[in-house]
Amino acid sequence: MITTQKRPFFLNLLVIRLPVAGVMSIGHRISGVAMVATLPYFVYLLALSVAGPAGFEAAAQLVSGWLFKAFLFLFLWALMHHFLAGIRYLMLDIDIGIEKPVYRQTAWAVLVAAPVLALILLGALS
Predict the structure, then answer these.
(1) pLDDT band for position 15 (50/70/90)?
(2) Mind giving me the DSSP string for the chain?
(3) pLDDT tens, 106-115?
(4) Which of 57, 38, 40 is nearest to 48 (CA)?
(5) At how many degrees (to 10) do helices 20-49 and 53-62 cross?
(6) Residue 73: which residues within 8 A CB-CB, separation 6 or more?
(7) Are 59 and 48 in contact (CB under 8 A)?
(8) Cα–Cα distance for residue pair 89/106, rounded to 1 Å
(9) What are the structural domains of the chain?
(10) In the predicted structure, residue 38 carries a pLDDT above the cut 90
(11) What is the pLDDT of residues 77-119, one digit of tens each?
């Protein structure tokens, strides 16, 4: 009796081509984690800014640099992506946009609109 051993299968994630909806789904999860991860920093900034005039100046110093602008852009991207993808998932839950061309188009719309809206909001906040 010959037995064949099942060897572990190496899955190279860099070679796999996900559909656009899969990429958007992963982005939705990443954006949710990113928003939760940034909460302590924003709470720290809020606490620092209401601590008094010196704290307000320190908070203003922290938010005036280009590094904070990049951080704020990433946060706004996460917020917009999570918001738009959430609306898309709600529409899919009520059977709107479940056809093949439509779900691809809505996934692309989320992937394109999120950074555009983040840039618009960043410009409005700056």
Answers:
(1) confident
(2) ------PPPP--TTT----HHHHHHHHHHHHHHHHHHHHHHHHHHHHHHTS-HHHHHHHHHHTSSHHHHHHHHHHHHHHHHHHHHHHHHHHHHTTSS-SHHHHHHHHHHHHHHHHHHHHHHHHHH-
(3) 999 999 999 9
(4) 57
(5) 150
(6) 118, 119, 122
(7) yes
(8) 10
(9) 20-35+65-125 (1.20.1300.10)
(10) yes
(11) 999 999 999 999 999 999 998 898 998 999 999 999 999 999 9
Q: What is the pTM of this model?
A: 0.81
Q: Extract the tokens encoding 121.
A: 């909001």
CB atoms within 10 A of CB 78: 23
Alpha carbons 59 and 87: distance in angstroms, whole number: 34
